[in-house]
Amino acid sequence: MTTTDYAVPPGAYLDEWIEEQGLSQQQVADMLGASRKQVNEIINGRAPVTNETAMRLERVVGIPAKVWLRYEAAYRADRARIADEQALSAHGDQIDPNAAAYLRKLGATKATLSKPGQLVSDFLAFHQCGTWDAYLHRHDSATQGDYALAALKEAKANIHRTLLSTWLRAGELTEEYERGRRFDFDPDNLRARLPELRTRAAEPDNQMLNDLASILADVGVVFMVVEPPKSFPLLGMTRWIDKRVPVIQQTGRWDKDGFVIWTFFHELGHVLNDPRGEMHLEYSTEKKRNSDAEKAANQFARAVLFGPEGIESFRGLSYDHEIRRVAADIGISPGVAVHQMRRVRWLDYSRGNSLCVSLAGTFTPLGQ
């Protein structure tokens, strides 16, 4: 449905009829049994078309009363919408341009900052918030687990609230998230399936992410890859549905298997070891990972993937065939080893590239 930036009063149709008939407003007023002032105010949208007036217009003009009342309702609705958009336009500059572009890509809006009121209205509708204050309240409830303001402050991250909330909301609108509402999370079963998850992640291919998602669904964990907005500094995050069902949402950014697999097991550490309801964000910048929870999640991922020796087996290695051989002995993807060796500066970024597998576009939502 196309919206306009103007409202047409039902009196405009009456004015056209008067002109076509060659009548004066006074003559029509006499025909309606009304005053000329009332007719003039209806024509100019200053007086409403009531039920009684609509029935009189039907007898005089020939347009059914229900049509006049529909014109009136549309006029009042358009006026309210225009006034609402004018008020909302004050918040247009509070929406990050990349969040606005992301909404357009998702098909949630066609508006740009040239129509800030419409953009803000569509933004609020996407978040299921009636007002800007309602949106801020929902976002600022981060400490209760809805959004990660506490984590943002702790990491001193510069993620615009509208950018973060829009990506999170995009995840909520997926089939995976909706299906997850019916999941029954079992942490013991998840722990029991860790070896299976590790084994599957050791051979990254086009089906790996789908297989990992299927295994997690069996134990009541939602896993999904949601394309992020431009300039989004996250690799992934963990949150909960009603503090019952854990959700691992990854961006797929930096799509090499080492990044994706490490982030995957890092988030599993949050799922198993952190209080339910908390949200944790995995940043693409090492400096953002300083909290105790992030360090613990890293230790978890390192222990599951590399075992008690950690990455010591890779110290001093620099050639692809050496890294591939040790990774095979340990039972992990060589790309994961490359990722970790680079993090501790044991391997230059010019080396190990042929060992990394691209997983871009390989995730398919369950059921599709």
Task: Please give a structural write-up.
The chain has 368 residues and is mainly alpha-helical. The protein folds into three domains: 11-89, lambda repressor-like DNA-binding domains (434 Repressor (Amino-terminal Domain)); 90-144, no CATH class; 165-355, no CATH class. The chain contains 17 helices and four strands. It has helices spanning 11-21, 25-32, 36-43, 51-61, 65-88, 97-106, 116-126, 132-139, 149-155, 161-172, 175-180, 187-201, 208-218, 257-273, 292-306, 320-330, 334-343; strands at 222-225, 234-241, 245-250, 280-283. Strands 1-3-2-4 form a four-stranded mixed sheet. α1 (11-21) crosses α3 (36-43), α4 (51-61) crosses α5 and α12 runs antiparallel to α13 (208-218). The longest helix is centred in the N-terminal third of the chain and has 24 residues, at 65-88.
Descriptive labels:
3 domains; mainly alpha; 368 residues
Helix count from the secondary structure assignment: 17
**Which structural class should the secondary elements be placed in?**
mainly alpha
Main sheet specs: 4 strands, mixed
Summed over residues and divided by their number, the pLDDT gives a mean of: 89
In short:
With 368 residues, the chain is mainly alpha-helical. It has helices at residues 11-21, 25-32, 36-43, 51-61, 65-88, 97-106, 116-126, 132-139, 149-155, 161-172, 175-180, 187-201, 208-218, 257-273, 292-306, 320-330, 334-343, and strands spanning 222-225, 234-241, 245-250, 280-283.
